[in-house]
Amino acid sequence: MNDMNRVATEVATVKLLIDGTFVESRSEQWRDVVNPATQAVLARVPFATADEVDAAVRSAQQAFKSWRKTPIGARARIFLKYQQLIREHMSELAAILTAEQGKTLADAEGDVFRGLEVVEHAAAIGNLQLGELANNVAGGVDTYTLLQPLGVCAGITPFNFPAMIPLWMFPMAIATGNTFVLKPSEQDPLVTMRLVELALQAGVPKGVLNVVHGGEDVVNAICDHPDIKAVSFVGSTKVGTHVYHRASLAGKRVQCMMGAKNHAVVLPDANKEQTLNALAGAAFGAAGQRCMAASTAVLVGEAQAWIPELVAKARTLKVNAGTEPGTDVGPVISCAARERVESLIAAGVEQGARLELDGRKPSVPGFERGNFVGPTIFSGVEPGMRIYDEEIFGPVLIVLAADTLEAAIELINANPNGNGTALFTQSGAAARRFQEDIDVGQVGINVPIPVPVPLFSFTGSRASKLGDLGPYGKQVVMFYTQTKTVTARWFDDDTLGHGVNTTISLK
After folding, report:
1. Is residue 332 in a domain?
2. What DSSP string runs through 8-75?
3. Which one, 62, 87, 164, 497, has least CB within 10 Å?
4. Where is the signal peptide (predicted)?
């Protein structure tokens, strides 16, 4: 039940964060936050008004005046404290996340932990936000650069990683001296808000971090607001493309991480057991709701005979609520998401793909109302089928065949998306050729989900990304700062009095 205008009940309301205070929205539009395993309403989230968005931005703009001048060591110490608080509350955060998003408790802890890694990286900001110096580039002249914060920045995050992706955004933006307005997913904002509470507890000053909730109107307000200097987005290709063009036209820096179709290529020499385990985990973990899920397997040559063993491996996975012990695959986020996944499975059958394992309508005793889809496998898939051309975002693995590694590379490079890919092999020569020739931003060699650690940057490419610089890592320091170049000359008394110089030379 998601009645946007229903009367208030006893269910808790999700607050806005404006100028350091959690406030009740005055909005007349609300949405239920629903447990996807039970349909229980956990809370009600407001769709913030235009005035509330303006108030959040004003607060951030005012706070920027002092925050940008805060010593870099003081900023770093806040994030040292913050990472400690996240560790202390890991189990609580995972429980909140599982209740509202559906993934297993173990996967929820992983969600929080991958965000925690970025917080730890933000605590090292003193080593990251460094300029350059060239001494004596001309007579008595030095040139150096400053990496200065932009001002008010904003982030728009998706439902599938409600801990990790907000933690990709606001810690690095704030650590580099900016202030931030965050818009979490309206489907599962509770764990995000708990992380925000912990950030304030760690010492983030009032106004430096603000939170608004909402849908399309709030997204557009963020894109249009003249006082927001940069926007970071993770989500669907449709919305991300809209955000990129609208915010760019408004003069903002924008980075958008969007949809994917991640191929995992399997050569016949790969370690079979390790590869089958990796494929099943990467395809069906988090119910397939990962932008880096290995949703598409390309079996090369004799590896095509592995399909029955892949199906057998998938059959061993347990479908249940994320809170239940031993669960491998939890529910998808909503009834609408389940219906979409089921419709794409039906389309695969209609278009001639071979349904090796049908996960529709699994029996989950005690959770009959849950949004469950079990592991599903198609073979005989070809480009042009909807299950290949569209991102399914559910626990569905599609299998294509290729005669050679060259044919597999050609297939992948013809796909418009470029988020991630993987190769399973024991051949160093094959691995080197693959990583050189593949036109995808993130490559795994015997690693099914090659999301880099925060020392590096998330580097999705092509239709999976808009904007030059990725989130976290070295690239995001450049995204959240403006490079200012200073050329300076200081005169000694005996160097004065050389007269007027009308040339461009610094000699």
Report:
1. yes
2. P-SS-BPPEEETTEEE----S-EEEEE-TTT--EEEEEE---HHHHHHHHHHHHHHHHHHTTS-HHHH
3. 497
4. none
302: pLDDT strictly greater than 60:
yes
Helix then strand then coil, in percent of the chain rounded to 5, is 40, 20, 40
pLDDT value at 14 more than 80:
yes
Specify whether 59 is located in the same domain as 147.
Answer: yes
The answer on 304 and 157 residing in a single domain is no
The answer to whether residues 240 and 163 belong to one domain is yes
**Sequence-ordered list of residues with C-beta below 8 angstroms from that of 301, at least 6 positions apart, any chain:** 267, 268, 402, 403, 404
What's the predicted TM-score (pTM) here? Answer: 0.95
47 and 148 together in one domain:
yes
Token pair for residue 53?
Answer: 């968005």
Per-residue pLDDT of 247-276, as tens digits, reads 999 999 999 999 999 999 999 999 999 999
User: How far apart (Å, rounded) are the C-alpha atoms in residues 284 and 57?
Assistant: 39
Closest CA to 359 of 340, 372, 343: 372
In degrees rounded to 5, what are phi and psi of residue 153?
Answer: -120, 165
Strand-pair category, 141-149 with 152-156: unpaired
And the tokens for 118?
Answer: 């970025």
Choice among 153, 223, 291, 335 that is catalytic: 291
Q: Give the CATH number, domain containing residue 94.
A: 3.40.605.10
Q: Taking every pair of C-alpha atoms in the chain, what is the biggest distance, in angstroms?
A: 91
CATH number at residue 408: 3.40.309.10
State the Cα–Cα distance between residues 257 and 231, nearest whole angstrom: 11
Whether the per-residue pLDDT at 4 is higher than 90: the answer is no
11 found inside a domain:
no
Helix crossing, 90-101 with 72-88: angle to 10°?
Answer: 70
Instruction: Please compute the mean of the pLDDT values over residues 227-237 and round it to a whole number.
Output: 98
* pLDDT averaged over every residue in the chain: 95
- What are the strands, taking DSSP E only, across 337-416? 354-357, 376-379, 396-402
Active site residue 256: no
pLDDT of residue 500: 80
Element (H, E) at 91: helix 90-101
pLDDT band at 8 (very low <50, low <70, confident <90, very high): very low
Question: Does one domain contain both 303 and 376?
Answer: yes
Q: For residue 10, is it within any domain?
A: no
Q: Report which residue type is found at 32.
A: D
Confidence of residue 7 (pLDDT cuts 50, 70, 90): very low
Does any domain span residue 161?
A: yes
Q: At what angle do helices 216-224 and 237-249 cross, to 10 degrees?
A: 30
- Spell out where 84-227 has E strands: 133-138, 141-149, 152-156, 179-183, 209-211
Range of the domain at 375: 263-445
